[in-house]
Amino acid sequence: EYILGIETSCDETAAAIIKDGREIVSNVVASQIESHKRFGGVVPEIASRHHVEQVTLVLEETFAKAGLTMDDIDAVTVTEGPGLVGALLVGVNAAKALAFSHNKPLIGVHHIAGHIYANRLVKEFEFPLLALVVSGGHTELILMKEHGDFNIIGETRDDAAGEAYDKVARTLNLPYPGGPKIDQLAHEGNSVIDFPRAWLEEGSYDFSFSGLKSAVINTLHNAKQRGQVYRNEDIAASFQSSVVDVLVEKTYRAAKNYDIKQVIVAGGVAANKGLRSAMETKFDDEAIDLMFPPISLCTDNAAMIAAAGSIAFNQGHRAAWDLNASPGLDLERYAQRKN
Ligand code: ATP
Ligand code: MG
Ligand code: FE
After folding, report:
1. What UniProt keywords are attached to this protein's entry (predicted)?
2. 277 annotated ligand binder
């Protein structure tokens, strides 16, 4: 079984072909980061235009690298949402055109299901499974009892983890995207400032990062007025330890509470070295299996979309030819439907 995946939800134009749900045959990502850098974030109009320019080239390269043609493909899967509407539309239309003209099944995939399934390209899932999704737009704890089943047991009430990284990076005048840079600085600094940890109500698996972001801004502002100087490395280390403490502790509590067999971490922030090592330490003595995708599969790519799409394909999901971009697509509703 060969599945084609297409992903254009944000600022990466990506296509991939995977075999039997778990093996990458080719995986091409054209990043637009350079075009958005000078604006300090993703500009939707620029993103759409880049996708239009890149999508055909990226698809051609994906087939060339695989040594396959559309005749070999069993299904075309594409990120349907959530994301930027203009960006999503480019991928959805490319997928529809390819699938329709070659008479192949078309399947819409939820972007976060994709981030989760990036892990299945590494190792088979074991249920019940708990996914910690930490990306640019999402911070969620998701319980899965079987393939294609997603139950959100906790989510952020304000900023996503990646968003907090990017905003703090901007405050420190670091280039976009700031997450990797803060991660690097954190390793050269010490956690000297005791920033707040948002535990929220007893037993809650929700997250909140906007208070932490404000605390960083206020600390820098007050220090400046007092003529005190903090090293960026120490700010980064202090901020990172606050984020990581809460992510790790809540994931651990949920894993225990739901008798989880496997914990997986997904999304761009799963690339974070501090998070990876703290998770490894916390789950070291446990019978729970802990898994991270390789760094290249943490951020947006289409292999993860094909991996989630392969499951949907085998469960009989088929999209109609009027499949549309769905910028606010809900994960639990997506899990429930059959098209
Ligand atoms: P979503 O998946 O929620 O729609 P997105 O696709 O924009 O959002 P991803 O591509 O999954 O997000 O991840 C990008 C985010 O990951 C950015 O916020 C970036 O700063 C963050 N990130 C990447 N590497 C690291 C790292 N090493 N440490 C912390 N954050 C990181
Ligand atoms: Mg991105
Ligand atoms: Fe993403």
Report:
1. Acyltransferase, Cytoplasm, Iron, Metal-binding, Transferase, tRNA processing
2. no
DSSP code per residue over 261-317: SEEEEESGGGG-HHHHHHHHHHTTTSSSEEE---HHHHSS-SHHHHHHHHHHHHTT-
Task: Kindly indicate whether the ipTM for this predicted assembly is greater than 0.95, answering yes or no.
Answer: yes
pLDDT in tens, 45-59: 889 999 999 999 999
- Distance from the alpha carbon of residue 267 to the mean position of ligand 1, in angstroms: 6
CB of 19 within 8 A of CB of 61? no
- 183 in contact with ligand 1, CB cutoff 6 A: yes
Query: Cβ(137)–Cβ(162) under 8 Å?
Result: yes
Token pair of 29 as six digits: 């990502």
How far is 67 from 95, CA to CA, in rounded Å?
Answer: 19
- The atom of ligand 1 lying closest to the CA of 274 is 28
Give the tens place of pLDDT for each residue, 83-118.
999 999 999 999 999 999 999 999 999 999 999 999
Comparing CA positions, the residue from 266, 319, 285 lying closest to residue 92 is 319
